[in-house]
Amino acid sequence: MTRRSHLPDSASKAATVRRMFDDIAPRYDLVNRIMTFGLDVGWRRRAVRSLGLPRDSVVVDVACGTGDFCREAQRAGFVAFGIDFSFGMLAAAKTTAPLIQADALHLPVSTGSCDGITCGFALRNVSDIGALFAEFARVVRPGGAIAVLEVAEPESRPLRAGHRIYFHKVVPLVGGLLSDRDAYSYLPESTVYLPPRPQLVELVSAAGFVDVRSDLVGLGAAQIITGTRA
């Protein structure tokens, strides 16, 4: 699983990714903070602000992990709850928001029943990104919003070269020292599953969202994809 030729196919991807996140859950937050130099906290905060929803809006964090987005949503005055298919991640969560174990492609949420969705660094881990956005469109009410945080590449050639070295060489090394090398080798390699930013915008628009955009953050190391439910 540490090389592209060993990335799981669509049939085994869900089970493989679930086991991986179960294994790395205990130190997931620590490794994230170190890998991003703590910048991921600000990225999530910006993503939550970009929803542009009033206080007391119901926001679902899909692939919630240990609850980072849930905590930010609650700080913003939203009613938050999280969904993740890894029981290990939910067991390690540090949030007071209600948590549910479920598949992101089959959310246990009624149609049009939530005001917003957040999702962090999960697009690469689902078997069908288009189906995920369609599921977001199903559960978000008209006029509601989504904010999806995902990895990206800097537009500047020098920054892009440095980012690739860091992401594909340093991240597996540090991840191996602090947690699980196989998992933190998979995470950079899994970017092969991620369409280019313009195509991601098209997929979100095709699912039923308007005013869709992808904004780079962290010198281009990550992106926040936003859209309003038509």
CATH superfamily: Vaccinia Virus protein VP39
Reported for the largest beta sheet, the result is:
7 strands, mixed
Helicity level = 40-55%
The general outline is globular
Tally of strands: 7
Unreliable residue stretches: 1-5
Average pLDDT across residues? 93
* Overall domain count: 1
> What share of the residues does DSSP label as strand, in percent?
15-25%
Characterization of this structure:
The protein is α/β, with parallel strands linked by helices. It has one domain (4-229): 3-Layer(aba) Sandwich (Rossmann fold), CATH 3.40.50. The protein is 44% helix and 22% strand. It contains nine helices and seven strands. The protein has helices at residues 10-24, 28-35, 39-50, 68-75, 87-91, 129-139, 157-178, 181-189, 197-207; strands at 58-62, 79-84, 99-101, 114-120, 140-151, 209-217, 222-229. The longest helix has 22 residues, at 157-178. The termini are far apart.
Annotation keywords:
single chain, 230 residues, alpha/beta, Rossmann fold, 9 helices
Compile the SSE list and pairings.
Elements: H1 10-24, H2 28-35, H3 39-50, E1 58-62, H4 68-75, E2 79-84, H5 87-91, E3 99-101, E4 114-120, H6 129-139, E5 140-151, H7 157-178, H8 181-189, H9 197-207, E6 209-217, E7 222-229
Parallel strand pairs: 1-2, 1-4, 2-3, 4-5
Antiparallel strand pairs: 5-7, 6-7
Helix pairs in contact: 3-4, 6-9, 7-8
